[in-house]
Every structure is written in structure tokens, then in C-alpha cells.
Amino acid sequence: MRDIGVDIVAPEGDWDGDKNCPFYGSLRVRGQIIEGTVSMTGMTNSIVVKREVTRYMKKFERYEKRTRRYAAHLPSCIGEVSSGDRVRIMECRPLSKTVNFCVIEREVAE
């Protein structure tokens, strides 16, 4: 297993030879780290992660909720995720037209 340069818990799943894996393959991760909730798992080896941010609007003296969706590659060593799970994704090179992020950690619910 390779060190990706981020302080995270290492995945315990098996690797199936996926070259787009930051831990066992040759995919390099860089840039921003985003935490969000899995909203869709219908694609092959990819998921959609939703992040909600509250922002204060000075003019109206209220908060607004903004949502951003990211398509992310799911390596086989991370394991199965389902809708509602919290994950951490990190920026990587473009893997397809919409996928520019890779899942690096699945947060365990306590």
C-alpha cells in the first residue's frame, strides 16, 4: 500500500487490480479535500457526493443553504457505500467527463 500524503485511516478492503486507486494503483491525488454525504450509487465504480453549506446573507440577515454535487470514483479497496454514508473525497486528474474526485475515506458512524 502506498502513502497518499494525507492523514487518514487506511482502507481494509481487497484490491481488484483497479489502476485508478490512490492506495494500490497509480492514481495521484492532490488539491482540496471535501467531506460530504453519498446521495447516489448507481454508476459503475462511481458515486455522487452531496455537500451542503450554509451561508449568511447580509442584505436579508438570514442564512441560505447551498448544495453542491460531486461525481467521485469509488476504489474497490474502500468497500461498499450506500446512500447517506459520510465520505471524504479528494481531487485528482479527470477520470471521465464529470469525475474529477476520488473517495479516500469512508467515515464510520458511531
Automatic annotation (TrEMBL):
InterPro entries noted in UniProt: NA-bd_OB-fold (IPR012340), Ribosomal_uS17 (IPR000266), Ribosomal_uS17_arc/euk (IPR028333), Ribosomal_uS17_archaeal (IPR019978), Ribosomal_uS17_CS (IPR019979)
Pfam families, per the entry: Ribosomal_S17
GO biological process: translation
Gene Ontology CC: one annotated term: cytosolic small ribosomal subunit
Domain of life: Archaea
Keywords (A to Z) from UniProt: Ribonucleoprotein, Ribosomal protein, RNA-binding, rRNA-binding
GO molecular function: rRNA binding; structural constituent of ribosome
Role summary: One of the primary rRNA binding proteins, it binds specifically to the 5'-end of 16S ribosomal RNA.
Entry-linked PANTHER family: 40S RIBOSOMAL PROTEIN S11 FAMILY MEMBER (PTHR10744), 40S RIBOSOMAL PROTEIN S11-RELATED (PTHR10744:SF9)
Complexes and interactors: Part of the 30S ribosomal subunit.
Family: Belongs to the universal ribosomal protein uS17 family.
Descriptive protein name: Small ribosomal subunit protein uS17
Organism in which the protein naturally occurs: uncultured marine group II euryarchaeote DeepAnt-JyKC7
